[in-house]
Amino acid sequence: MLTSQICDYDENEVILREGELGDRAYLIESGQVLVYLPKDGGEVPLKVLGKGEIFGEMALIDHSVRSASCRTLTAVRLLTVTQEQLLNRVQSADPVVRLLMRALLDRLRDQNSEIRGRRLTSSTSVHAEAFAQDQRDALDRINLESKMSRGLENDEFLPYYQPIVDLASQQIVGCEALLRWRSSDGILTSPQVFIEALEQSPLILDVGQVILEKCVADLVKLRDHLPAGIEDHFFVSVNVSGRQFADAQFLDRLEKARGQVGLESKHIKLEVTERIMTEGPLAIATLQQCRKLGYKIAIDDFGTGFSSLQYLAAMPLHDLKIDRSFVVQMMSNEKALSIVKTLIHLASLLNLNLIAEGIETSEQLAVLQNLGVQMGQGYLFAKPMSFADLVTVLSHRQAKGLAQAA
Fold first, then answer.
1. Is the pTM for the entire model greater than 0.85?
2. Own/partner long-range contacts of 196-205 (Cβ < 8 Å, ≥24 apart)
């Protein structure tokens, strides 16, 4: 694995040559670099690059040899960009983006070969196989997005609800709305198949709005079925993506959906992940405005990604959710148990409520109760269910045995 470093070159030094294997790219910090093709003992200039521009990346993206040469026109200072730094970003890109990148690289190489008057043999078996895989991935993504678009038109997206219970009394106090996709033939598509693609697609804004509207409408319908004494504080927790918060119209749409059914904002909990912090100032400002309007904010998946305590300080939170992965492991893994205890202590210091996810056994429940966790959800109580099944479940006053009742 290569690490980034500063490289200094004098005037008229060759940095890389056509046909060489590439192991790094370069970012120009100062000076000028000429990209050229050697031809008949001379040079065919292609482009002059300056401060802030990158070169040498083409060979890294598709594992091909250098398609051109580069030399300095003046003294230059370069910052290397390692294979790992570049390829990690390429591989994490949308498959359609990767396909377009490879197509553009092929066209650039074709142009270079025409200038040289011959065809380059850059399409090695490794390159061809990678290109074919990107084509398959891109086609799969395009097909999936097309199906999701039709699903939106046909009203196939709906919320399933998983009860959230008070761990001390084991009474239902709310529920989390989880996105499901049920086609017109009644088949449910696994969330693992479409959630990531949906979140990366512009469709997330419209699908997210549909789910919000259905959730607030369902919550109003639930009033007649809630156990006595919890009507005033029963809530529905709705997962909202960072892209939704970054949409300038999100807050108006949320308020309109709530206002149309006459629901108080305190009954709606907006569940976010720390990734919202990467969506820019508009997303954070919208989040803060939602809190001022009385919506409760819960952070999910904290501690499972690139967590930072600054997120907890910057976000106007009401709840912190203990991720299922920690709950599942805490009975057999001391480190996982220590993380759970740390999150509980942190939530106490920050005056946040705790909700434990993924409670599956009575032993896990007992540990969480003893540690003072206020609320929880999981298969021990109930699996995610349709609205009709939730209505049936809410006829029970206690959460115990809900999985069997559902």
1. no
2. 197/141, 197/144, 197/145, 197/148, 198/148, 199/241, 199/243, 200/94, 201/145, 201/148, 203/145, 203/148, 203/149, 203/152, 204/241, 204/243, 204/244, 205/243, 205/244, 205/247, 205/250
